[in-house]
Amino acid sequence: MHSTITVKQTTHSRIGELDFSNIPFGKVFSDHMFVADYDGVQWKNFEIRPLERIPLHPATMAWHYGQAIFEGMKAGISDEGVPLLYRPQDHLHRLNASARRMCMPEFPEDIFIEALEQLVYLDKAWIPQEAESALYIRPVMMATDEFVGVRSSDTFKMMIMCLPSGPYYNKPIGLLVEEHFVRAAEGGVGEAKAAGNYGASLYPAKIAKEKGYDQVMWMDAKEFKYIQEVGTMNIFFVLDDLVLTPNLSGTILKGITRDSIITLLKDEGYRVEERPVSMEEIEKAYDSGKLKEVFGSGTAAVVAQVAKIGYNGRDLVLDLNTNKVSTHMKHLINQIRKGRITDKHQWISPIKLPALV
Ligand SMILES: *Cc1c(COP(=O)(O)O)cnc(C)c1O
Asked: What's residue 357's pLDDT?
């Protein structure tokens, strides 16, 4: 294959500095990054080069007006040493959906996949082998016009960086039902992985932390009645033999882990319902002893078990010994990502033949 991507390899790999048994999430970057520019007409300057700082003008529009989106995906490595990308096309389709909503240019699928394959192959020594570890991949697209004034930028930059990561959450989390602030309203940008969504969530999250919870559980913006999601995770409730998760209403992020879990649960014969889930229903299920398990789902954590939910002035405390569905799902997804069990749904893209040099 003729490659459109220029590759400049590092002469000073930092891999020797990495302690695989203790990788703090979000701080450790692999040797290389992918960079591309949009000039107002087309994407160009496709390049993989050593990860480094990029110089930007103070009027770079992304910082002022929030025209910035990102993705989060993972790669594993098989026991035979083949790097495996997890659902890369699905992540690109979501990136491009976010781009359309934020008036940004879509990124071409063939170049995205080629960039991931070359980048991850080049940095494959950075992919941790342990069961719950992976290479976290962070694509980000930002507006780069140097201009003061609100309009869409004409130029953009796309970058992809890789972070080796260990287990994300070590202990189960506490959630506080948020009844004042909202994450997203109908017609807003809740469905996009847009940078501003996260900035807006920090203050409510800080208050929840001061009250002794790890994150907020977002409710719908109209009535504060229906559950939406949590931080950077979708949410699942196990009521006896029924698994409930809020439907994709346009205000929640279409989690790819959420989709994987729904598919895997259905494969195993679980009854799964995607529909509006009210906090009232969950509280009732808790009081009648039906609520067995609550967990969040997202690429970084895969699954995060919920230990308590603060609601109506009290804590719904979950018995973590009954956490079977979530542990099972976490194990399954981690195993699929490492190529250890059959990939029935073609979620895995092995990187076999790099188009390098
Ligand atoms: C990224 C994200 C998720 C999880 O999506 P995955 O594709 O499973 O990683 C859920 N909610 C929000 C708000 C997110 O940003």
From this structure: 44
Specify the pLDDT at position 322. 75
Across the range 170-190, mean pLDDT stands at: 94
- Paired tokens of 1: 């294959």
State the Cα torsion 73-75-76-77 to the nearest 10°: 180
Ligand 1 site-directed mutation target among 261, 299, 302, most atoms within 8 Å of CB: 299
End-to-end CA distance of the chain: 10
> 34: which 2 tokens?
């992918």
Give residue 169's pLDDT band: very low, low, confident or very high (50, 70, 90): low
**pLDDT for the residue 131:** 85
User: What is the value of pTM for the model shown?
Assistant: 0.96
CB contact set of 245 (below 8 Å; sequence gap of 6+): 234, 235, 236, 237, 258, 262, 272, 273, 274, 277
Distance 17 CA to ligand 1 centre (A): 30
